[in-house]
Amino acid sequence: MIFFWAFVVGGLICVIGQIMFDVFKLNPGVALTIFVVSGAILDGLGLYEPLINFAGAGATVPITNFGNQLVHGAVEEAEEHGIIGVVTGIFEVTSAGISAAIIFGVIGALLFKPKG
């Protein structure tokens, strides 16, 4: 059943994005910002963790999880190290994903002919 709910929740997030493009005529940068900020707000309100527990990859794969991770890391480290933990927590939690995106992007650019 977890696969079904992951598909439904991930699909609903994609539907929201498509509505932003088609109905509201938002560009991808604005839609991306809305998703990241909404994930951060949901985590700040304590609503994103239950969504992850319910939908699994349907909630962790979309870009909304990046906002969730930013706030989650900042709050977690702030509790442990104070105000400096806000900054270090953001970098600590998100560095692996950002590094992987950069590395695989470069590898993809080297292996394939990018259209520039």
UniProtKB/TrEMBL annotation:
Q: What's in the keyword line of the UniProt record? A: Membrane, Transmembrane, Transmembrane helix
The residues that cross the membrane are 6-23, 83-112
Give any Pfam family that matches: SpoVAC_SpoVAEB
What's the protein called, per UniProt? Answer: Stage V sporulation protein AE
Question: What species was this sequence derived from?
Answer: Lentibacillus cibarius
Recite the lineage of the species: Bacteria, Bacillati, Bacillota, Bacilli, Bacillales
